[in-house]
Design goal:
By secondary structure, the protein is an alpha+beta fold. The chain has eleven helices and 14 strands. The strands form four sheets. Strands 7-14-11-8-10-9 form a six-stranded mixed beta sheet. A hairpin with a 2-residue loop joins strand 1 and strand 2. Helix 1 packs antiparallel against helix 2. The termini are far apart.
């Protein structure tokens, strides 16, 4: 069809681009209809059940527009492929305006000019990215000079590099084993607020009314059950240390040691929070939770600590929450391991040479911790009675965005974790107070 023979719009004077169904199709204001507009118009007509135009011609137009769209997509794919393709080695790179930029000029022989600190800064990809981001954020370029680090910062002089060094610095975990957290059921929290039900029903005998019932007789009602809704938040435990960029870059052993110590510090604090956290500004500690059991030998009773633990275990079993572990101070565990009979034979250990044997007593796993006050211990069904909720594992962060550390060429290494303890069944735990030594 000759375009010049098509009618013009009676109001705007714009010539139609075609005839569909006996009616002229005019372009949108500003030019001819785009492929998207043509596609949408044809789809609308194809879906119109009352369309009385030439269906064959409409379908031909649909095929034409679909082919044009496919061709446009293929051109776009070829263009993106060319842009992402890497030139072969040795192929001259396009210079563009880089020849005119400071620090980009070749030397007298045409070779790349020696790169100074300023030229490295100008040529860096970090600067190009910084400019592309609207000059927001931070970036660094190797080779720049900075002023001295603040006093007290970990530097390469803290642990200077030597020509020959035995691998490692010092043991990363010199303290006692950190195992209290591993006694608990551990779950992941999806939020920062923690709500759980704490069972305050008391001993089994107070609420369990199950009984044998004669035929036709009324069945007993058990209970009452008693629960408290506990609402708390996950607590953040964190600490950090400054370190110069040179120490971080040049001394991998020192860097690994610091990371290990930061991580260990969080675990060390977590163990103590599980036991003695105050439940408000700190995590909820088991020992500070109301409702846990208690056992102490009667006045005048001089039971050995070995015997006291066994009787406390019975108390936990009578509460219907069989204990599985006990946490005690190393001094109290020492007294138990050194307990001897009348013949001088050790009661707990079979041989003093087997120092790697698992620590157990009366079928209970033993964990020693200086967080437990000497003369006391905590026995319980740890997985039954409490859950450690963690929002995230230990996170190690490093940045120069702290105070004036950027200009001091100093980094901050930060380690943190977010967690809290839900002591949902206090009756599962028994605090032991040992009798004073005779």
């Amino acid at each position: 069809m000759n375009r010049s023979s098509l009618p013009r719009h009676p109001r705007t004077g714009v010539r139609a681009v075609g005839i569909v169904g006996g009616r002229p199709v005019y372009p949108i204001k500003g030019g001819a209809p785009t492929l998207t507009e043509q596609r949408d118009e044809i789809m609308r007509l194809l879906q119109d059940e009352n369309y009385d135009g030439d269906v064959t011609e409409l379908m031909q137009r649909a095929d034409t527009v679909a082919a044009q769209i496919e061709q446009a997509n293929q051109r776009d794919q070829r263009l993106r492929a060319l842009r992402s393709a890497n030139l072969p080695a040795g192929d001259p790179q396009p210079q563009g305006d880089q020849r005119q930029q400071p620090g980009m000029q070749p030397d007298e022989r045409g070779n790349p000019h020696p790169v100074t600190a300023a030229e490295a800064f100008v040529r860096s990809e970090a600067l190009a990215t910084f400019r592309g981001n609207g000059k927001r954020g931070q970036f660094s370029v190797d080779g720049m000079d900075f002023r001295a680090a603040p006093t007290g910062t970990v530097t390469t002089g803290t642990q200077p590099a030597q020509n020959t060094r035995v691998p490692g610095i010092i043991p990363q975990n010199p303290d006692f084993p950190l195992l209290i957290a591993n006694l608990l059921d551990r779950q992941t929290s999806d939020g920062t607020t923690l709500e759980y039900m704490r069972d305050t029903s008391g001993p089994l005998s107070t609420w369990n009314k199950a009984a044998v019932v004669a035929e036709g007789a009324d069945k007993p009602q058990t209970g009452p059950f008693s629960f408290d809704l506990i609402t708390t938040t996950l607590k953040t435990v964190a600490h950090w240390v400054p370190i110069t960029r040179q120490a971080a870059d040049d001394n991998s052993q020192l860097m690994g040691y610091i990371n290990g110590r930061l991580t260990y510090g969080l675990d060390y604090k977590l163990d103590r929070e599980i036991l003695t956290g105050n439940g408000t500004t700190q995590m909820q500690g088991i020992l500070t939770t109301s409702g846990i059991g208690a056992y102490q030998p009667a006045s005048g009773n001089t039971d050995a600590k070995l015997i006291t633990v066994r009787k406390a275990k019975t108390q936990g079993e009578l509460a219907m929450y069989p204990p599985d572990a006990i946490v005690m101070n190393p001094l109290d565990w020492q007294d138990i391991e050194l307990d001897t009979d009348a013949n001088g034979q050790f009661r707990v250990i079979t041989t003093v040479t087997d120092s790697g044997a698992p620590m157990r007593i009366w079928g209970l796993t033993v964990v020693t911790s200086v967080a437990m006050t000497a003369g006391t211990a905590l026995l319980g069904g740890y997985r039954t009675g409490a859950t450690l909720w963690e929002r995230q594992g230990i996170t190690i962060l490093m940045t120069d965005s702290h105070a004036d550390y950027f200009t001091a060429n100093t980094l901050v290494i930060l380690a943190e974790r977010r967690a809290n303890v839900a002591v949902h069944t206090p009756q599962a735990f028994v605090k032991i107070t040992f009798a004073a030594a005779a």
